[in-house]
Protein 1
Amino acid sequence: MTETLHAPPEPGDIVSPCCGRTLNQLPRYDRITLKPDQVTCNRLTVADVMILSGQPVVLDANDQQMVVMMAATVTHLTGGMVDHDTALDRVHVAIRQILPTDQPVPVWTSELMIRVVNWAVDLSQV
């Protein structure tokens, strides 16, 4: 019998990120590992599902705050000509056009945020 290794639930969560099952739903002889490279569950993670869908994946814990901040920057850079909701929409479009879809982006770097904001501003002026 081969042992299957699962990732532990994230803090505050009750399901394993590798398969979406609670610990008591795992087969009896499966184990939990703290080393991500040892996970052998073979179920897709949320990030894997997103990548397969063709959507960019940002693993940064502050992803949503960064997106909102970029939208606020777009509104500021356009002198208020673009309202926040429109700026947020343009930032999402820029993200889909700039970020890779074949691998997750681990964190928002300054360079990446500047590229997204600049592209969102350009999209707002069309």
Protein 2
Amino acid sequence: MILLVTGILAILAATWTNRPSVWRPIVVDASVAESDTTDVLLRPGIDYEVSLEVERGTAGAGARQLFKPRPQSAVTGRWSITCQDDRIAAGDFTNYIRIETVRSWRGELYRVIARVPFGVDAAKYRGFGLTGSYLSERVVGAFQLPDDITGSCQYSWAIDGSMDNVRLAIRRSEKDWRAHSRQLAFLPIGGFLAVLLGSFALLVRGLILLRSRRDDSPATRR
């Protein structure tokens, strides 16, 4: 029982430290508004990336363009980050820095077990892989927030053309995630292992108790 409770607590702790709102502070649907500005709370001194997110398995020539490491025309437009009336960063959605996608069942399983906040939508993360969708990401920009920034910033975008079901996201950098994961990966992975071992131990204990009761019952005594 102690092992089971410890595992559950470890998974809850991992879920809290890896929650999407920390690692992807804003995600907006490109089809909601072709141009808009919204407030976003970013942490000073942290590296961020701007990415386009599309559900994995989306068909069509536009989706194929997004997932190739070269300029694309499926989503066109501009973005910018302004903090305290100063423009911190700006770029174009047609740019390319990196492609992130989940291609195998091992990658899917790892995201579920390790509570990875990237490559999955909010429903997939909350449902431990039982609901929601896996995402592919095209990173189109990067910036670091200055240390002297306080309060919220403004994320602005203008879409000239877009395919359906595209999300515009600001996410913590891949470098930040890898450093975090190296330090705290033991929480979700160790937690799941502890839950499995604890559940197995409870099952074995239950079977032993059941067998013991059968052996001690009057019907089995002669």
Protein 3
Amino acid sequence: MPILTTQFNDLVKNALVQWREEYESVEKNARQLYDILPNENLTSEHSHIDSPGFARRKDEGSSYTVGSPRQGYTLNLTKSRIGLRDSVTWEMRKYDKYRQIEKKMRGLGESTAMRIELDLTHMFTFGLQGSTYTNMDGETVNTQTGDALAIFSDSHTITGSSTTVDNSNGTLAFNRTNLEAGERLFRNMVNMNDVKVVPKPDTIVTGDDPAIVNVVAEFMRSQTAPDTAERAINVYQGKYRHIILPLLATSNLGAPSATGRYYWMLMDTKHKDAILEFSEMPTFTMATPGNNGEEFDTDDWKAKSSASYAYGVLDYKWLVGSAATSV
């Protein structure tokens, strides 16, 4: 039985269900690393103000020392919109091709979720390679923190002195020695007043290459020391969680890439200095037939999926990364 115009509302309801189910089915691993905020403005400004540091001695009868919190750097974000359109053809409606219609609607949901995940992941992929990259739409994407340096750099600056801060573990492969090297970089983090801060890394982040995934799993779950033959306690058991980003080792077009397959990062995910702002949450729309929703030349009913968002990393003191080339 054909789908008639009078049945359009039922078709839309079912299409929305299919779109939402597929959108939700895409694992949003990279999104876990971001602070997600609503923001209706085209542009937004995010600034960093550090605490004044240590409290000072107050002698009897004397005044309190006035604190001096220091302004850090500023990150400016501009929203971009993504979208994809598809159609329900006359033939699909006439010949009861519900499965084809369902597949198209689910594809729209997947496309939106995957593009957001790709963008959020590539902030780290290309942040380990440089300060910008060109995305699949030919746009230049900034992978710099507020100090105008790449997210992972051995010479991050602060506003309060000439001290530089290192959060790049070079190309060190994942093992105990190199993990401890990454942990040591966290020990040298300072705020804008050149005062030591104490981030507490809780998460190891990698791509989905089996070699790196299994090495991390063995390292964290081994009952004994994972890198020695001695019967010692594994001090890393339960210390970190492991987040896998399936799109970490992909090109700017989203194709599998050998570059990035062994990248790994150590993060303090309690700090929310990766920012994701939505002015349009992922949305499904199906235009009404007879109201610019049905194409005169083709009789197609049009449907689309869209979202508008901006993303970036303001500060670098919560993560350390390695552009490793092997395990």
